[in-house]
């Protein structure tokens, strides 16, 4: 793709709106099965197929070597529930009604699983759902209530709640394989959504990985001590810094700091997370963490040294959770091979958004900056996708529903707002493919205190509007990939910024978004 600003002509916009269903160039004799593996908060920086320098993910890498890796898949609204609602509906948050995690998903609306179910697919979902209402369009489901728990979790089922002993990432895979092996109708094609809680906060690793990385110092990101000097005011006022906001007990698991005077401040300790571990699990937990915690308490760290320690504790626990995800992706892929399903099963790996692994001194997501805007997307489609392909087109979670329907040879509804990725997967990116993506984040005031904002990103530049404070940011991602220098006020950028503002207006009109202050 050329490194320049490309505005979408009105004719192209109208053409895209009118041509939702791409005609498959190849029609398989038998509809393909689809296995959609989905995680929560898995950053590209923690996937070796994406170039991670902090961990290895051999099974995700194996999937990438057998399929297509998308370098620039971007979320429309970087937060758990809203991203999932966009995927279910193929519509932006302002149209599907789920703009923040405080909203409740309207499960009577059109979703791609309902359409697949109506067209002969057997559908199932296991794991994290996070949309508050019950899943609809699924023949079988067991989902975590809310965020769910890592150890010995409860599941909501059509028959009521059920507690399952074990580690949640293993359990979701167990449920997925059990359904594939024993419960599905083998005369029908299937859609299986295998959706993990990991590696979401509070990053409780499987007990077999509790000491993984103990002998390693994880490299710190270059912006761990970012000062937010050129950014809009919200960057300094957020509440997601490893320094000021990552809790030594809740996040870093220094449980020795809990006493009778502060116990009520930590309901996670009393009711969930650590409190859910059985005695055997607690023995392993204490054997792993107690010596490390004692060494930390004796060191009495302050200032930057304390931030560095908190980063190491955080990132190692996060990567330990990722290790379980990768292991279980391998289990699913191995089952497909052994069962003979692999040849006609599409395997997709993605996560609901990106995440900050210390970049800008942060954890969490929400911002339109690169680390949280990007989400992993890897697709293996035997006989269609050229193995080991890397794609650089601008794609989005807005495209997932349309793509899954197109894969299943089901007509894409006209009111869905994304585009099928099938032509790209076949190696033929349409000439009129989008040149920029649109983003809109709404959840403020709320946890982490990230201000509302919207904006666009093309293949080189990014423009962000924090509309409640009327502040703008502009980045040249080629010269400033870490988004350190906001150059919105630079005189030489004004013509380019003006063009991007016009493009932003067009995209807001195209996607029917009149929420927030107008450009």
What does this structure look like?
This protein is 30% helix and 15% strand. It has 519 residues and is α/β, with parallel strands linked by helices. It has a single domain (31-203, 315-507), classed as Alkaline Phosphatase, subunit A (3-Layer(aba) Sandwich), CATH 3.40.720.10. The strands form four sheets. The chain has an eight-stranded mixed sheet, sandwiched between helices. It has a four-stranded antiparallel sheet with strand order 13-14-15-16, covered by helices on one side. Mean pLDDT is 94; it is low at 1-19 and 21-28.
Give the helix tally: 14
Morphology call = globular
Average predicted local confidence, pLDDT: 94
User: For this structure, what is the CATH class?
Assistant: Alpha Beta
CATH architecture: 3-Layer(aba) Sandwich
* Biggest sheet descriptor: 8 strands, mixed
Order of helices and strands: HEHEEHHHEEEEHEHHHHEHEEEHHEEEEH
**Could you please say which CATH topology applies here?**
Alkaline Phosphatase, subunit A
Structural class: alpha/beta
Number of domains: 1
């Amino acid at each position: 793709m050329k490194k320049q600003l490309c505005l979408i002509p009105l004719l192209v916009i109208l053409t895209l709106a009118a041509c939702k269903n791409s005609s498959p160039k190849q029609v398989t004799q038998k509809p393909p099965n689809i296995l959609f593996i989905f995680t929560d908060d898995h950053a590209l920086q923690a996937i070796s197929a994406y170039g991670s320098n902090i961990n290895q993910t051999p099974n995700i890498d194996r999937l990438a070597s057998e399929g297509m890796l998308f370098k620039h898949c971007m979320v429309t609204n970087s937060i758990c529930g809203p991203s999932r609602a966009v995927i279910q509906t193929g519509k932006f948050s302002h149209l599907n009604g789920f703009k923040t995690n405080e909203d409740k998903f309207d499960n009577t609306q059109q979703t791609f699983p309902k359409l697949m179910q109506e067209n002969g697919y057997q559908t199932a979902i296991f794991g994290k759902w996070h949309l508050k209402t019950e899943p609809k369009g699924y023949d079988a489901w067991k989902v975590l209530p809310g965020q769910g728990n890592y150890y010995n979790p409860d599941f909501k089922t059509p028959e009521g709640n059920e507690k399952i002993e074990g580690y949640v990432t293993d359990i979701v895979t167990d449920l997925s394989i059990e359904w594939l092996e024993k419960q599905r109708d083998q005369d029908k094609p299937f859609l299986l959504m295998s959706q993990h809680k990991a590696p979401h906060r509070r990053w409780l690793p499987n007990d077999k990985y509790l000491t993984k990385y103990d002998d390693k110092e994880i490299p710190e990101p270059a912006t761990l001590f970012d000062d937010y000097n050129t950014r809009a005011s919200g960057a300094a006022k957020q509440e997601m810094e490893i320094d000021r906001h990552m809790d030594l007990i809740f996040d870093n698991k220094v449980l020795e700091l809990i006493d009778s005077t502060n116990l009520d401040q930590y309901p996670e300790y009393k009711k969930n997370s650590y409190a859910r571990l059985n005695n055997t699990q607690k023995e392993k937990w204490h054997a792993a963490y107690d010596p490390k915690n004692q060494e930390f308490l004796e060191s009495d760290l302050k200032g930057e040294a304390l931030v560095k320690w908190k980063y190491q504790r955080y990132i190692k626990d996060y990567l330990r959770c990722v290790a379980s995800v990768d292991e279980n992706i391998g289990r699913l892929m191995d089952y497909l091979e052994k069962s003979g399903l692999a040849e006609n099963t599409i395997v997709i790996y993605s996560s609901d958004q990106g995440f900050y692994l210390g970049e800008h001194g942060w954890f969490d997501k929400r911002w339109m900056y690169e680390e949280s805007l990007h989400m992993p997307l890897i697709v293996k489609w035997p006989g269609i996708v050229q193995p080991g392909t890397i794609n650089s087109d601008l794609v989005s979670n807005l495209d997932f529903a349309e793509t899954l329907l197109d894969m299943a040879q089901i007509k894409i509804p006209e009111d869905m707002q994304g585009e099928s990725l099938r032509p790209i997967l076949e190696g033929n990116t349409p000439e009129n493919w989008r040149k920029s993506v649109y983003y809109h984040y709404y959840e403020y005031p709320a946890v982490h205190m990230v201000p509302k904002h919207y904006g666009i990103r093309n293949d080189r530049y990014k423009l962000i509007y924090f509309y409640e404070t009327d502040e703008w940011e502009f980045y040249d991602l080629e010269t400033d990939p870490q988004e350190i220098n906001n150059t919105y006020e630079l005189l030489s950028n004004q013509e380019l910024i003006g063009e991007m503002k016009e493009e932003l207006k067009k995209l807001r009109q195209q996607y029917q978004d009149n929420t927030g202050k107008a450009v």
